[in-house]
Hints:
Order of helices and strands: EHEEEEEEEEEEEEEEEEEEEEEEEEE
CATH architecture: Beta Barrel
Oligomer: single chain
Radius of gyration: 20 Å
Number of strands: 26
Number of helices: 1
Amino acid sequence: MRRQAGGWRRARGVVGAAVVAGALVASGEQVAGQEESRGDADRTAWKSADPGYTLSFPRDHAAHPGHRIEWWYYTGNLHASGGRRFGYQLTFFRFGVDLQPVNPSRWAVRDLYMAHFAVTDVENRGHHVAERLNRAGIGWAGASTETLHVWNDGWSVTLEEGDSPVHRLTATSDDGGLALDLRLDPVGPPVLHGVNGFSQKGAEVGNASHYYSLTRLRTTGRLVVDGEVADVRGLSWMDHEFGTSFLEPAQAGWDWFSIQLEDGTDLMVYVMRRTDGARDPRSSGTLVSRAGAAHLRVDDYRLTPGRRWTSPSSGAAYPVTWRIEIPPHGLDLEVTAAVDAQELETGRSTGVTYWEGAIDVRGTRDGVPVAGSGYLEMTGYAGAPMSTVLR
């Protein structure tokens, strides 16, 4: 079953300004004080991702308001004391609308803030979703430029500094039936994707992002699902990306995997699908092992889709089983969705329909059995191509 939980006051997908503005109008919000706004027509005013930029931490956990698109993305697989399993996603988006609004009012919309919160109840085959859409306004939403602190109408992620910095995640749906309060303790340093954290997405240099992950975070805390409270523990994954334009017209969407194997190996890998069905040559990945992080180019791996599940709501047919082969590293993995129905329809925020959910992983590494879990995101199977969204 799939349950939608979320209110109407608030305002690895983010939508274009026109779509976001439409969502605001649909929700009864008014984009006040923007009559004289320059909008986002001149995107050259925003900073493009720069291959010469050096990521530094904890500085770059914070917001980058000079860039137009930014998200902080958390997923994880958690277990209650009795063994009951949950997957979760909590993602915060910032989308720049007008870099320098003419109107000085604090109600002028410089950025829109969106958030998605979902929990998969594996045992009961349930997928529960809530979302947020807000402007900064009088503090309804925002992101610090000094430290990791992003919030949206009571949902937040905060870096609690100390001898062992901890990420604190909190979110509660409007009806209180869905909530989380988690502490995430990073096991290792940030992993830079692409070339030194510069991830090229399109043929043009500017169509790129700065991209890194915390691939393994020990997690403890509490979930509320259908009003039932569970103390949980497990592993989480954090992604942070920022840039100004990402995709190009021929790119329809992507299939993205984050995997944590029980032998300590972590894997991020994705394929961008082109409108002609081919895989985009700028698809890539990163394999993290005790030997360090290894960049994967598109020819280093194969992602083969298997069985498909068709959404009764959107009609999209998503591959819910996959084979991942990485011959240079001896990996051959079978991926299976923990629950088929893990689709999000986000008409109250980003307007993007996509599949995001918990997965099980089994296979071999150099002939030795391995197993693990992770998350899979599939975009561009329903609605407009993602190239019309992230541009």
